[in-house]
Amino acid sequence: MASVARSCTRLGSSATAASRSCTTRTTASSTARRVCIRQTFQNSSRRGYASGSSGASSRTPYIVGALVLAGIGGGAYYLGNNPSLSQAKEGTSGETRGVFTPTKDDYQKVYNLIALRLEEKEDYDDGSYGPIIVRLAWHCSGTYDKMTNTGGSNGATMRFAPEGDHGANAGLKAARDFLEPVKQQFPWITYSDLWTLAGVCAIQEMQGPVIPWRPGRTDRDVSMCTPDGRLPDGAKEQSHLRAIFGRMGFDDREIVALSGAHAMGRCHTDRSGFEGPWTFSPTVVTNDYYKLLMNEKWSFRKWDGPKQYQDVASKSLMMLPTDMALIKDKEFKKHVERYAEDNDVFFKDFRDVLVKLLELGVPFQTKPEDRMELKPTTAD
What we know:
By secondary structure, the chain is mainly α. 47% of the residues lie in helices and 6% in strands.
């Protein structure tokens, strides 16, 4: 639920080179380097904080040629905008070998490239783009309205200014730009599927639960952008949370489970106005967010920014009014207590509610049992 806060390379060559390195690293030295990078990424994830912060006959061939080209172009556009259909696949010399339907192995390759970029690009916030990738997946899905069946991850309409410029989406250009080389390497995947798959990848690579996922989203045009105001406002409290999440079809338990995404990332004053991380390990998925809510003492931060809380002990962590609402409201609080006590219980509920969030409003042609579980690279 990184949206509540609205905040919160070192690929030395091109995106093609990055993908090639992901799929063809076979030498012992390359393998050793990747293991070293991964260990460095995981270890740095746990660091703490000291502070917050012509004639008719002659024209005939041309007319026929134009018609043929138009037909080809139209077909290409149709295929390109309908991911449920088979996709054109190029041969090794660039010729078209026919069509193919992406398989689980194809999506695993996309996943692996995202994971590789997460390892190698350490120049963002606390050493990982993971949290902001999760926030992108959350925000493109959290616009769903069950009454009008509009919004949700189907469409990737945040590509366009009306929605991309919404205040709650401030800073997410960094996440979209991060994923653009992946889209260029795998042009057959829609942005809608890419963004949600990337969110799954980020969570799993940050040691979170395995999230079942399925493709089938289409990209839509600017006319389908959602109105501003559909995402949570971190400055408000429990009635606001129930209104926003209720519009999507979530109950109290699911609201609290989604809030656990605040275990990742931080807020930025140049985006939401708020500042600081929620936990001491903002690039690792744990139940620490709930433990800190329950066990730490919190007070208002004295500063020129918007109302937020800070921990009394270190004054390096923060909570938003919407976070504190989870322990002020007795119905919310009982779920906070459950998750604080048992990380496995949190992981199970977090996994289930994430699957629901990423699928809101998507007219899938597949069944729920067709969801796939993609292998984390950290499991190698």
